[in-house]
Amino acid sequence: MPSPRPPVSGKPPSDMAMRPTLLNSCAWAATAAEARFRINAAPQAPRASRVVALDAGAADVVRELADQPWRGTRFLSYDASRSDGHGELDRALTDIVLDASDGRVRLSEELIDADFIMMVATAGYGATAATAIGNACALRGIMTAGVILGRDHDVDAAVTALRPHARVLLVTNDTNDVAEILSAVGA
Amino acid sequence: MLRQDINELLTQTGPGTAMGDLFRQYWIPALLADELPEPGCPPVRVKLLSERMIAFRDSDGRYGLMDEFCAHRGASLWFGNNEVGGLRCAYHGWKYDVTGQCIEVPSEPDNSSFCTKVKLTAYPLIRVGAVLWTYMGDPATQPEPPEFEWVTVPSEQTYTSKRWQESNWLQALEGGIDSSHVSWLHSDGLRNDPLFKGSKGNDYNLNDMRPFFEVVESDGGLLVGVRRNAEEGYYYWRITPWVMPAFTMVPPRGDHPVHGHFWVPIDDENCWVFTFDYLPTRAITEAELTAMKEGRGVHNEYVPGTFRPLQNKDNDYLMDRDAQRRGETFSGIKGIAMQDASLQESMGPIVDRTKERLVSADSGIIKARRKLVQAAQELRDEGTVPPGVDTAHHRIRSVSIVLPKEESFLESCRDALTATPGVRQTSV
């Protein structure tokens, strides 16, 4: 059976009125009643999220967040003051070492199965870590976001440091925004 | 995803609801001034925030907005006679002034004071620019009238339309905050629309489909900065202000008029979209005005005699698959306004946000929701006046600009983001 000829303009074809039209086969499907028939599928797999505090102020916020229930999200922090055998590597900005609740871990290892990295910074930002994370994520096609806690000039340096490396930056006074975004993206 | 109770909090604006109480802190657009063009003109039915009202203009030219239904038997005052000094119910002749005060009950004796005991709920209705605004909250906390630049510039520099959108106000507003859809859904408009085309900014828009976002809190709400690559060492920034609860501006393009929206709940499943174009320093040209009235730019065509868009649910928005196939429109729908409306209405009257799958690029929307919830809760719990009530928050502009990569859009655009009379918009 030949398929019906498509309309040649923005107007409906003249025979459209003759066709049986169910509620769900036209724009009137956007009713509350029809919404009952939307497929009610189980939630899809969560993002593989990592939250990295870039400075001490941010680490406090991230530590608190880590105590809440999340769907596989890992919480880490970068301590620029710690010097160890990885120091040279840090300065090369190809990899850094992060603190996790279960010990210390290399960024490159942490990114193996990640698809979303949220960097959290305050006025005591960690530009080194932002660069390392940004570069590593760019190489691997991992989405980056940054939340900078503070306002106005206090966080200018942090904004400048994160801007090239976070596809999305939120500057806010509200520490709850970190959790809000994580919840919203299904972390 | 959003919890169901939070979705309900955000989307319900009727009397006694948290978001309804929040909206009742602000002056909101109720009608176009043209709807009540002269003293003694016919009354107009108005529904806002799930309250049905009648708007009229008495013989002295005073504006009134009150309960639609006569206190006597509940008949609609839309059938009434707009007489000297008030609106008289067509059923038994009860007459009301613009404050809702009953001033005559014909069945009572001449010297009866009964009518003084009858007063309909009424709200102030004032004209600012080409819009009639109402404040539906506690008279004791009525703020100063709105000072958005679009309604304070001379009349020849501004044009406002309104359209009915068959969805909850929030999903309409969220479209105004979400800049990332422009390069996709509206890509044809950037190339062809007379009120959009020809700006250098369009090239940046179309050449970089993966923008970066910066969301910054402002005193009145949010500033959403979107940056794309420009020439070597530079970014092209588009900065969208949101002033709470429901005002957004689109970043300008070249010398085209600046546009934006005020998203006003009618009830929980419908909203008014007040759409404006204005220029801070020059009159709108005849050609621009004609284009706006023909539904170009961010405006739309109408079912004659109504505020219902010509493209609507009844006709599948006049979907044109051939135009979509040829790449003339991305979605097959003609016009920027209806491209937005068709998709937002398709989400359902109140989109189920428990099932959405947001990404971090939606941070502006996520933050806006949080600010609305916070403001509603702080109002309810502590009586805190929410952002956006202070008229200083209204004096804001959208901006499009090319900046060196190392510059902060906020610092570099502080002046450009402020509405200053006599100063041209900052636009690329």
Descriptive key words:
heterodimer; A: 187 residues; alpha/beta; seven-stranded mixed β-sheet; elongated; disordered N terminus; B: 428 residues; alpha+beta; eight-stranded antiparallel β-sheet; four-stranded antiparallel β-sheet; 25% strand; globular
Brief characterization of the structure:
The complex is a heterodimer of chains A (187) and B (428). Chain A is 29% helix and 19% strand. Chain A contains seven helices and seven strands.
Give your account of this protein's structure:
The complex is a heterodimer of chains A (187) and B (428). Helices cover 29% and strands 19% of the residues of chain A. Chain A is α/β, with parallel strands linked by helices. Chain A is elongated. In chain A, 37% of the residues are buried. Mean pLDDT of chain A is 81; it is low at 1-13 and 83-92. Chain B has 428 residues and is α+β, with helices and mostly antiparallel strands. In chain B, the strands form four sheets. In chain B, strands 12, 13, 14, 15, 16, 17, 18 and 19 form an eight-stranded antiparallel sheet that branches. In chain B, strands 2-3-4-9 form a four-stranded antiparallel sheet, with no helix packed on it. The longest helix of chain B has 20 residues, at 363-382. Chain B is globular. Chain B starts with a helix and ends in a 16-residue tail after the last helix. Chains A and B meet through helix 1, helix 6, strand 7 and helix 7 of A and strand 13, helix 9, helix 10 and helix 11 of B.
Tell the overall outline of chain B.
Answer: globular
- Derived from helix and strand composition plus strand pairing, the structural class of chain B reads alpha+beta
First-last Cα distance of chain A = 49 Å
Order of helices and strands of chain A: HEHEHEEHEHEHEH
Oligomer: heterodimer
Main sheet record of chain B: 8 strands, antiparallel
> Over the alpha carbons, how many angstroms does the gyration radius of chain A reach?
24 Å
Largest interface: A-B, 46 and 48 residues
Q: Estimate the helix proportion of chain B, in percent.
A: 10-25%
Helicity level of chain A, as a percent range? 25-40%
Low-confidence stretches of chain A: 1-13, 83-92
Beta strand % of chain A:
15-25%
Principal-axes shape call of chain A: elongated
Radius of gyration based on Cα positions of chain B: 22 Å
The residue ranges of chain B in which pLDDT falls below 50 over 5 or more consecutive positions are: none
Indicate the proportion of strand residues of chain B: 25-35%
Order of strands, main sheet of chain A, comes to 4-3-2-1-5-6-7
- Number of DSSP strands of chain B? 19
Q: Separation of termini of chain B? A: 36 Å
